[in-house]
Amino acid sequence: MRNTPTIFEFCKILGSIVKMKHYPIAISLFKRFDHVGIIPNIAAFNILLNCYCHLDQMHCAFSVLAKILKLGYDPDTITFTTLINGLCLNGDVKKALQFHDDLIRYGYQLDAITYGTLIKGLCKIGQTETATQLLSKIESKVMKPDVVMYTTIIDSLCKDKLITRALDLYSEMVVRGTSPNIFTYSSLMYGLCMVGRLKEATDLLSDMVMRNIDPNIYTFNTLVDAFFKEGRVKEAKSLLAVMIKAGLKPDVVTYNSLMDGYCLVNEVSKGKHLFSTMPQMGVTPNVRSYNIIIKGLCELKMVDEAMNLFKEMQCKSMTPNTVTYSSLIDGLCKSGRISHAWKLLDEMHDRGQPADVITYTSLLDALCKNQQLDEATALLKKIEDQGIQPNVHTYTVLIRGLSNIGRVETAKQVFQHFLIKGYHPNVWICNAMIWGLCKVDSFDQALALKSKMEENHCLPDAVTFETIIRALLEKNKNEDAEKLLNEMIARGLLNMSLSH
């Protein structure tokens, strides 16, 4: 244009392009400034820095900083925060901390956004302890930490299930005059719900109301989901009523939590009813919605109805994921339709959906129940060859299947392979192996494995004792059985056994 606009107008254009994440285009346009005689200002340089940071070209970003200094501009807090954020985004948090220390040494002042960025970077890579130390340092030497800094650390602690420490930091924050916000409460509620401390989570809801902070849909969804997962349907419904009364409309996440909760307490019909009413309420079911109902139907062996929903998904151009296929394959296997399960596995591969350990374990379980143990053993090898890590349940299923038909030596080899692979045995796999050993009267080996469990901090349970005691009694080894029974009583496991 004649009468070239000011640099501020060009910064607006560049800023808009960056918001759309077209970083290379913004860099290309910036480079044209020289050719048309436009002199960039510090704001323009900051935009350029931001582009290089998002493209993981930190050497270019620091070259821009060098140019800023060479041209005699004063870098501002946005400049430094952008560089620190770039280092954190690209996983160089250690360099970000070092850069921060260099800036302080040279006398530059940083603001709350800079420190918030550093704390976020540290928490993202699991360095929550370092972030907490930085928070203390900020408070004692630099400025009063703001709610964002506190909330970022609280959120990280909650995700690590360090709920007591998160609550302590929350209390410290309030005592020091920083008011919590909706995100602080949401993080704490999520953490408390994760560890089953639902009473404290609902108490926080009351605390929010007292502070005139309106709970949002995420807050209620977190609580409703947690109560349903605990099987506490009445409390979940009460919370839903409070949410609707507060003027919040249930969304797809709310419906998914409700349906999942009903399926967990074997009320799949209620889950289905909710699923069918979602469109009438202006809520569109997503892939997770279908997965919840498909899984619930498959667990009740209503596989044909689940397959109809699967076809409905495809008709609506929704892409079934690994969870969808795994649920259907599991349902088909448990219904004895193994050939259909294999066919669906082939379709899954053809559609580019990778099968996971859960998918293969369902097939392996079906093979074992069908006494196709050679095929099951071959499948385990195939899983490992594909780079999929079998889990403890996978090995337990195979060991139980082999023991069932008396192939205990092979089961022992599988158990040994499991240990060589570096897996940590749990009580389930040990009990499966002990059951197999007792079946062929290898009592010494069964008792040795029971002792080994304790050495590996995997405590025998009532089933462990009961399995060996029953086998000993069947062989009239009453004295040995009585000795184990006394040990069981001393451990307080007899009542658990009776309850089973």
From TrEMBL:
Pfam families: PPR_2 (PF13041), PPR_3 (PF13812)
Superkingdom, taxonomy of origin: Eukaryota
Keyword Isomerase: no
SUPFAM superfamilies: TPR-like
Ranges annotated as spanning the membrane: none
Entries under PROSITE patterns matching the protein: PPR
UniProt KW keywords: Repeat
GO molecular function: mRNA binding
PPR repeats (start-end): 41-75, 76-110, 111-145, 146-180, 181-215, 216-250, 251-285, 286-320, 321-355, 356-390, 391-425, 426-460, 461-495
GO CC annotation terms, alphabetical: chloroplast
InterPro entries for this protein: PPR_rpt, TPR-like_helical_dom_sf
UniProt record similarity statement: Belongs to the PPR family. P subfamily.
Full protein name: Pentatricopeptide repeat-containing protein
Organism encoding this protein: Lupinus luteus
